[in-house]
């Protein structure tokens, strides 16, 4: 199972920080399908990158099969992928 709880993510821009995700939560069981839709810049790719362990959220928690991903280093996250 993949579980995201209250995920937040922001990036630094020329005009200050840009919040792209705020309080995103979802659960996906093995075999489930999810479609992310939205306008350009709405955070779809960021959700996928965080879910895959390619990016680390600013807040919230990410669990894959019960393992807390946020606290893992880059090499450990790569092993899980």
Short descriptors:
81 residues, Rossmann fold, 4-stranded antiparallel beta sheet, globular
Structure description:
By secondary structure, the protein is of the alpha+beta class. It has one domain: Rossmann fold. About 20% of the residues lie in helices and about 40% in strands. It has helices spanning about 45-50, 75-80; strands at about 1-15, 15-30, 60-65, 65-70. A four-stranded antiparallel beta sheet has the order 2-1-3-4, covered by helices on one side. A hairpin with a 2-residue loop joins β1 (about 1-15) and β2. It is globular, with a radius of gyration of 13 Å. The mean pLDDT is about 90.
Share of helix, binned: 10-25%
CATH architecture: 3-Layer(aba) Sandwich
Radius of gyration: 13 Å
Q: What does the overall shape look like?
A: globular
What's the SSE pattern? EEHEEH
> Separation of termini?
14 Å
Unreliable stretches? none
In summary, what is this structure?
The protein is of the alpha+beta class. It is 19% helix and 41% strand.
Structural topology:
Layout: E1 2-13, E2 16-28, H1 44-51, E3 59-64, E4 67-68, H2 74-80
